[in-house]
C-alpha cells in the first residue's frame, strides 16, 4: 500500500468514525474507501467490520458521561448483542448476504423516519449525577437488540441507525444518551463478529490499520459533537442521511 493510499484511508476513517459515532453510518464512507484502494468486496466487508471495532472503542471512551449510571440496563442489552453478533457473523461466513438486499432499504427508511418521531426525553434526575436513576425499559428492547445485532454481523449497512432509532423510541432518552447506548452495544456486536472474521476470513491488514486509526480518532470526536449540537437539528440530519442511504440502496437492489 502506497503512502497516498495509507493517508487516504486514515482520512476516510476519521470521516467514517464521525458519522458512525454520531449517526451509525460509518460504513457509508469506510466500505467504499476500501473498495477504492483495490480491496475485493468480500474482503472489504470483513476488513471494514474488524476496523469498526476501533470506532466503538473511541466513541465509547468519549461517551462516559452519558453512560454513567446505565450499567444495569446495558448488561442484558450487551448480552443480546453478543449473541446476535455471533449468529450474524456465522451466517455471513456460511451464506451469501444478498438475501437482505431488497429488505434493507425499507428497514433503514423506517428507522430514519422513526428518529424524527422520537418520544420526548424523560425528565432526568440531577444532570451529571453519578447515580443517575434509570427507568424500567420495555421487555422487547433486548430482543430487538438481538435481531439488529444479527443483521449488523451479517449485512451491516446502517445497523447503527436501526439501533439508535430503537433506543430513542424504546427508552425516551435524550439523543446523547441514546447515541452512547448505541455506540456501546453496537460495538459489542461488531467486536464478536470481528473475532470470527479474524479467525475464519481473510483480512486486508495493510488497509485495516490506517482505516482503524482514523475510525478511532473520529469516534473520539463524535460524542462530543452530539453532546453540544442542537438535538432536534441533529436528529433531522441523521434521519435525512439515513433516508438518502435507503434510497441509494433501494436503487441498487431494484435496478
Short description, anyone?
By secondary structure, this protein is an all-alpha fold.
Describe it for me?
The protein has 255 residues and is an all-alpha fold. It is 77% helix and 0% strand. The chain is built from eleven helices and no strands. It starts with a helix and ends with a helix. The model is unreliable at 120-132 (pLDDT under 50).
Characteristics:
globular, 255 residues, 11 helices, mainly alpha, 0% strand
Taking all residues together, what is the mean pLDDT? Answer: 83
| Total helical elements | 11
Radius of gyration based on Cα positions? 17 Å
The N- to C-terminal Cα distance equals 34 Å
Share in helix: over 70%
Give the SSE order as H and E letters: HHHHHHHHHHH
Global outline: globular
State the secondary-structure class.
mainly alpha
Number of strands: 0
Strand content: under 5%
**Low-confidence spans:** 120-132
Largest sheet: none
Topology record:
Blueprint (H helix, E strand, L loop, with lengths): L2 H21 L3 H10 L4 H22 L1 H4 L3 H24 L9 H13 L23 H15 L4 H13 L3 H26 L4 H24 L2 H24 L1
Helix pairs in contact: 1-2, 1-10, 2-3, 3-9, 3-10, 5-7, 5-9, 6-8, 6-11, 7-8, 7-9, 8-9
Amino acid at each position: 500500500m502506497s503512502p497516498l493510499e495509507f493517508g487516504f484511508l486514515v482520512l476516510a476513517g476519521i470521516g467514517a468514525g464521525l458519522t458512525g459515532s454520531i449517526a451509525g453510518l460509518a460504513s457509508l464512507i469506510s466500505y467504499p474507501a476500501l473498495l477504492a484502494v483495490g480491496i475485493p468486496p468480500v474482503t472489504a466487508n470483513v476488513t471494514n467490520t474488524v476496523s469498526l471495532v476501533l470506532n466503538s472503542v473511541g466513541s465509547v471512551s468519549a461517551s462516559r458521561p452519558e453512560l454513567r449510571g446505565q450499567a444495569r440496563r446495558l448488561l442484558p442489552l450487551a448480552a443480546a448483542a453478543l449473541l446476535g453478533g455471533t449468529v450474524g457473523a456465522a451466517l455471513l461466513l456460511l451464506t451469501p448476504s444478498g438475501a437482505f438486499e431488497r429488505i434493507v432499504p425499507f428497514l433503514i427508511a423506517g428507522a430514519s423516519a422513526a428518529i424524527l418521531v422520537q418520544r420526548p426525553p424523560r425528565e432526568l434526575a440531577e444532570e451529571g449525577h453519578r447515580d443517575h436513576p434509570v427507568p424500567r425499559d420495555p421487555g422487547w428492547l433486548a430482543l430487538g437488540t438481538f435481531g439488529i445485532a444479527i443483521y449488523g454481523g451479517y449485512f451491516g449497512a446502517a445497523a447503527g441507525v436501526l439501533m439508535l432509532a430503537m433506543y430513542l423510541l424504546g427508552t425516551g432518552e435524550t439523543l446523547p444518551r441514546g447515541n452512547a447506548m448505541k455506540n456501546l452495544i453496537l460495538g459489542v456486536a461488531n467486536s464478536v463478529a470481528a473475532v470470527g472474521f479474524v479467525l475464519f476470513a481473510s483480512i486486508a491488514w495493510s488497509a485495516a490499520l490506517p482505516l482503524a486509526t482514523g475510525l478511532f480518532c473520529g469516534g473520539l470526536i463524535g460524542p462530543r459533537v452530539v453532546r453540544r449540537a442542537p438535538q432536534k437539528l441533529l436528529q433531522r440530519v441523521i434521519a435525512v442521511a439515513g433516508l438518502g442511504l435507503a434510497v441509494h440502496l433501494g436503487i441498487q437492489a431494484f435496478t
